[in-house]
Each structure stands twice: as structure tokens, then as C-alpha cells.
Specification:
20 helices; Growth Hormone, Chain: A; single chain; 2 domains; mainly alpha
């Protein structure tokens, strides 16, 4: 196998068609960066309404309950269309589907500022969720076509860390726009981000590296010699995917990690202000730093998992790194006992950083197991994982009110432990060679057997 061409060279900058490439890194890194930015924009557009909500409630005379319906409407479309979006990405190509999705949700982001009717606004947010549902499936579908398995953890981890980046930027940027331009301008300006991304994506991305005129012969040889054979358009093996233990290990791990994230997104500001009397400035800083640590951790652990896997079994390496996630769960159980503000923030940051060791594992799960149907697989995966966005805020609020914050933190730790245990018992990252005696194996669909 030829070495990975990460070092700039003349061959890297000269494409197959003779077109010059001005950027000093391989073309596939453009793909990963644009995937990162796509999820970054999606998360910003999803979160900005939280900043505008108080002003909207005041202007329209809505209470918390009515605004809650608006906020929840997004997830109706997001979760409800996730699986169809994955099927579309696999069947018609992730470039086209992601572009249509970005145009859709960016349009509805801008339209969020217009409706004065609660029902119409809920419909707008639902349709915005439908658009965003194609984000993760499209990302994994195109990464499977462009990257070698030895790069899966770092490239999937980096691309998915755009979600953490969006959380970090969305709140301060939207607050700044609110202060100087009013709440409606938040949605207009954030929609422009999607338009700018769409231009870069349309001009710089191809579904297959073989179709890209600026891919060098060296890079194309590396991709094709190490990448699993990708055959799109065939029947999707739903029954085999859904009854495979390795798949459910990925689903459980992603669900548990998402529970951790939604727990912090939903309740951390309230916990810091009410329980520990943080000022608004300290609360904003204390709420953002854990996500910054998760962003950095995801990229560090993705790199390390790929590096260690060069000389070891990837399944064993994944499970080894999940011990850090287990440490994060343990730290959660003691955070509620800390009283010093600096200690609380430090423990939250440490726990979030260690939790992110799981992100490259589940982000690359569909690439490791079913690269030809990565979009469809991750559509199911993300639908299940986002159920935690429905359950975690409600259960956490109930536990905090009835039993105290210690019980809420312990519940989150228990869910994380359950996800880790499922992956330890059932998780695998290697594909077996096709079995000639198993006509129903995944090899009959143009891919290797899971596990």
C-alpha cells in the first residue's frame, strides 16, 4: 500500500486533468473540512433560536410552554426524516443531497423571523429539521468514498466535531447580533453562512475522487488501493444491519454520548446559576468551556485512535479509548459534591474532554462496518441517538427537582456506563472477508460482512 500523501509535493498539486491545485494539502482534506463546516453551520442554525427566544416571547406574548413547542418542532422533522435522508444520500450521491439540504434549512432559517403565528412558526422549524436531517448521513456517505480506513477515526471525528464548534460560536455570535441588530437579523445573517458554504461545496466537492479533476495520481492511488469497494444504488440490507450486534453497539454508544451532551446543553447554565449562583458572565464561560474541551478532545482522540490502530486491532483500540469515557462518567458522579466554582468548571471540562474519546468511535462506525451504505446506517444511528435529546432534558429535570442534582448527574453517568458496556460486549470495527457459504451475507450487496 502506498504511503498516505499528507506531505505536499508537486504531484499533489497537479490533478489528473492537468489542472493546478493551489492548496498545499491533499484534496480529500478539503472534503473533510467542508463536512466540518457543514455540520458547524447546521448546529449554529439549530441553536441560534435559543438566543432569540426571549425577545420573540416578549414581542408575541408567548409563554415558556408555547415557546417549548416551537423549539421541539425542529426535532420532529430532524428525527422523522433522518433515515430517508440517509437512503437518499446513498442512492443519489451525498454531494447533491447535502447541497439540497443546506439550501432547504438555510431558507427556513431565514423564514423563522417572519411568522407571527405559533402554528406556522412550528411548521417552519419542522421543515428546517427535515433539511438538517441529511447532514450526518451525507457526511458519512462522502467520507466513505474519499478516505482510507486507516483515516476513519480522525476524519470522522474532525467532521463531526463541527457540531461542538457550532455550539461554541452560536451563542456569543447570536448574542452580539441581537444586541446591535435585533433578533430578526440573527436568522438572516446565519442563513447567509449556509449560502457561502453552498458555493464552496458545489464548486469543490465530487461524490467520487475518480471524478475530481484536481486529485493527484498519488492521492487517487492511495484512496483506491486502501478504500473498501463502494457500490451505491443497490438494495439496502435493512434486516441484516438492524439485527447485527455490532451495529447496536454503535447505536448504544452514540445514544449514551448524546445523553451526556444534551444533559449539558439543556441544564448546565441553569445548574450553574441556580445551584452555584454563577453570574451571567461566569455562566456563559462555564457553559462554553466544556464544549471547547470536547471539540479539542474529539480531534486529539481521533488522531490517536488511527495512529495506534496502525500496529493494533482497531476494535481493541476503540475499546481501550472508551476507558477514558468511563472515567468521564465517574467524574460526573462527584461534580455535584464540589462547591468551588473553579473546581466545578474544571471537572466539567475534564469530563467533557474524556467523554469525547467516544466520538471518533461511533462517528466512524458506519464507515468501518458498511461503507457502501454509510448514509443509511448513520441515518438509523442518529435517529436512535437523538432520542436522548427528548429523554435527557425531561428525566434530568424530574430527578433534579425530586431528588437533587446529584441524582441527575448519576443518572447521566449510568447511561454513559451502559453505552460503554454495550460496545465492550458487542462492538467491532473490522469487516470479515465475504463468506461463500452465506448467500444472505452483506457481501451479496456489494459490501463485506459486518463484524
Amino acid at each position: 500500500m502506498p504511503p498516505s500523501p499528507f506531505v505536499p509535493s508537486a504531484s499533489v498539486n497537479k490533478g489528473l486533468s492537468g489542472l493546478s491545485r493551489s492548496l498545499p494539502w491533499p484534496k480529500r482534506l478539503d472534503i473533510s473540512l467542508l463536512c466540518f463546516l457543514g455540520l458547524f453551520v447546521a448546529t449554529c442554525d439549530r441553536a441560534n433560536i435559543s438566543v432569540a427566544a426571549p425577545s420573540m416571547m416578549k414581542e408575541y406574548g408567548w409563554g415558556i410552554t408555547k415557546m417549548g413547542w416551537v423549539l421541539s418542532a425542529f426535532y420532529v422533522g430532524y428525527m422523522g426524516f433522518m433515515i430517508p435522508a440517509g437512503v437518499l444520500a446513498d442512492r443519489f450521491g451525498p454531494k447533491r443531497i447535502f447541497a439540497v439540504a443546506m439550501a432547504c434549512w438555510s431558507s427556513f432559517t431565514a423564514l423563522t423571523s417572519l411568522p407571527r403565528s405559533l402554528g406556522i412558526l412550528a411548521v417552519v422549524r419542522t421543515l428546517m429539521g427535515v433539511g438538517e436531517s441529511a447532514t450526518i448521513p451525507s457526511i458519512n456517505a462522502i467520507l466513505a468514498r474519499w478516505f482510507s480506513p486507516q483515516e476513519y477515526s480522525r476524519t470522522a471525528g474532525f467532521s463531526w466535531s463541527g457540531g461542538y464548534g457550532g455550539i461554541i460560536l452560536a451563542f456569543p455570535l447570536a448574542s452580539l447580533i441581537l444586541k446591535f441588530c435585533g433578533w430578526r437579523m440573527i436568522f438572516y445573517l446565519f442563513a447567509i453562512l449556509g449560502g457561502l458554504w453552498l458555493i464552496l461545496w458545489s464548486k469543490g466537492v465530487y461524490d467520487q475522487p475518480e471524478d475530481c479533476p484536481t486529485v493527484s495520481p498519488t492521492e487517487l492511488e492511495f484512496i483506491r488501493s486502501s478504500r473498501p469497494q463502494i457500490k451505491g444504488g443497490g438494495p439496502i440490507p435493512w434486516s441484516l444491519i438492524l439485527r447485527t450486534p455490532e451495529a447496536w453497539a454503535v447505536f448504544a454508544l452514540h445514544f449514551s454520548s448524546n445523553w451526556f451532551t444534551y444533559f449539558l446543553m439543556s441544564w448546565l447554565p441553569t445548574y450553574l446559576v441556580i445551584e452555584h449562583h454563577f453570574s451571567l458572565r461566569k455562566m456563559a464561560l462555564g457553559s462554553a468551556l466544556p464544549f471547547l474541551c470536547a471539540f479539542c478532545g474529539t480531534n486529539l482522540f481521533g488522531y490517536l485512535i488511527d495512529r495506534v490502530s496502525r500496529s493494533g486491532n482497531r476494535t481493541h483500540v476503540n475499546k481501550m479509548f472508551l476507558l477514558l469515557f468511563a472515567c468521564a462518567a465517574g467524574i460526573l458522579t462527584v461534580i455535584s459534591k464540589a462547591s468551588s466554582p473553579s473546581t466545578i468548571v474544571f471537572l466539567l471540562c475534564l469530563s467533557s474532554a474524556l467523554m469525547s474519546s467516544a466520538t471518533p468511535v461511533y462517528a466512524s462506525g458506519s464507515l468501518d462496518l458498511v461503507p457502501s451504505f454509510a448514509g443509511s446506517f448513520v441515518g438509523v444511528q442518529n435517529s436512535i441517538a437523538n432520542l436522548s435529546g427528548v429523554l435527557a432534558p425531561v428525566i434530568t429535570g424530574y430527578l433534579a427537582a425530586s431528588m437533587g442534582w446529584s441524582a441527575a448527574f448519576s443518572c447521566t453517568a449510568a447511561v454513559c456506563a451502559l453505552g460503554i458496556a454495550c460496545y465492550w460486549l458487542m462492538g467491532k470495527a473490522e469487516r470479515k472477508p465475504p463468506s461463500p457459504t452465506a448467500p444472505e451475507s452483506l457481501s451479496s450487496f456489494g459490501i463485506n460482512s459486518i463484524g
